[in-house]
Amino acid sequence: MSHFALSIQVWYRQNHRNLPWRDTKNPYKIWLSEVIMQQTRVDQGKSYYYKFIENYPDVFSLASADEQEVLRLWQGLGYYSRARNLHSAAQQVVNDFDGVFPNTYKDIKSLKGVGDYTASAIASFAYDLPYAVLDGNAFRVLSRYFNDNTPIDTGQGAKLFKTYAEEVLNREDPAEFNQAIMEIGAMVCKPKNPDCENCPLADTCLAFNEGDPLQLPVKSKKVKVTTRHFHYLIYPSQDIQLIKREGKGIWQNMYEFPVLELEDKKLKKEVSAIVKDKYGVNIIKRIFDERHILTHQHINATFWEVDEMLKGDTIIVTDLNLINDLPLPRLIERFLENNVGLFDL
């Protein structure tokens, strides 16, 4: 066992957080936790993990679920393609593997939405196969330990850090090793405030001893952020008008109020003219403004009250009391929470 592996695993046994998915070898539960925890804080992810286990205790129940119900249960977690991929992959397991979760890296990676990291995690945690995981935490630990400024978001960086990970991997106990390197990254080798003095790798970490941990890891690409302007149209009534968001992109197959997306910010007079021309209704007043931040998109949303119900083939009507049975983007949820009185007719 490498000094690296021994150091982090001894630390892990004494300091790790007790998380429900760490107490099982069930590949279904491990897979579920890995998908949920991508881009999600542990405190938030735990509640969703319990909800999914309660509603879908095995792969058969998830595979047979209605996608709309899966999306509703996922509501608030964001990155909804994860939920759709989760549902599709469960159907793959049932249809292609007779309901038995695959037990090889290759077959695990064949599942919808499963990449190298998730396949490596499931293979090691559930089946003790010697695959090193490389999530954001592991990338950060390795880049600092080896004091390597190769950009982690390039093909060259991915290969290099995979080599580093394989070099220090404890092949006799890959599950604990992988949990340990991720836990070190989450609790000690943090992005902005690393606790280097109390890190079990401090004596051999090159960035701590020879460089600057805060400068690592390096990324070559900046995230391109798009600003979008959504104008939601609402007629206050017990019968709520909604549309289902079709096609690729954010919130696919989820429900929102009828919306106009305009290229830039518009004044009430300009929006009113567009709404009158498209729907034949009049805007009465602005109800609510909200800025909704996603990783690649900033959405400026304005909610307008109109003077009568809209007409259109894509518009559906549902009772206000049933709206929470539908999968809603967090933006729409927040509007409803803040404007309950609008519908008290």
Q: Can you describe this structure?
A:
The protein has 345 residues and is an alpha+beta fold. The chain folds into 2 domains: 3-215, Orthogonal Bundle (Endonuclease III, domain 1), CATH 1.10.340; 226-343, Nucleoside Triphosphate Pyrophosphohydrolase (Alpha-Beta Complex). The chain is 43% helix and 14% strand. It has 14 helices and 7 strands. It has helices at residues 3-15, 27-37, 42-55, 59-63, 67-74, 81-96, 105-109, 116-127, 136-145, 155-168, 174-187, 206-210, 268-279, 330-338; strands at 226-234, 239-244, 255-256, 259-262, 283-293, 297-306, 315-319. The protein has a 4-stranded mixed sheet. A 3-stranded antiparallel sheet has the order 3-2-7, with no helix packed on it. Helix 1 (3-15) crosses helix 11 (174-187), helix 8 (116-127) crosses helix 11 (174-187) and helix 9 (136-145) packs across helix 11. The longest helix is centred in the N-terminal third of the chain and has 16 residues, at 81-96. It is globular, with a radius of gyration of 24 Å. The model has no long low-confidence stretch (mean pLDDT 93).
